[in-house]
Amino acid sequence: MQTYIAILRGINVSGSKPIKMDALRAMCETLKFKNPQTYIQSGNIVFQFKETKPEVLEQLITKKIKEVFTFDVPVIVKEANELKTVAKNNPFVNKRKEDITKLHVTFLSHAPEQANTDKIMEQNYGEDEFILSGKNIYLFCPVSYGNSKLSNNFFENKLKVRATTRNWKTINELVAISSTIQTK
After folding, report:
1. What is the pTM of this model?
2. Domain range annotation of the chain
3. Given this structure, which CATH class describes domain 2-80?
């Protein structure tokens, strides 16, 4: 069994696309996922399943959400070890020791094309900073992520990929939950 983390975009935000976590776990069980656990209401699911490409799981979960809850929800799936690597390699933590309450990670559906990346690297975003690393973007927003230009919509429009963001506390909680599930 492999441990995976599914990260859903845009559920339970201001009453939009409401999904109760117990209903989400029940849906996961119908997909034969083992030990599904959710973390907070923003759509984070840690589960075990036979070794499968994350892209296949993304499609499976997206289709099932559409079937059960009747709306489209973008889903990004990470293997547990990949998420641990993301947490371990945050340059804003390791090199700069920034305030962790100001850190986020944006997960991309796939690595963006270099031409699109080059365009956003040339711009100034005020105090907000980002570091692109493959399919992940490390964010430092010293004032507020909620007021940052570096939103999911910004990265999706500029990089031509799907994106969803989690704060640093959530990243670390998901790593901890995935470690607990792996030891069962």
Report:
1. 0.92
2. 2-80, 84-168
3. alpha beta
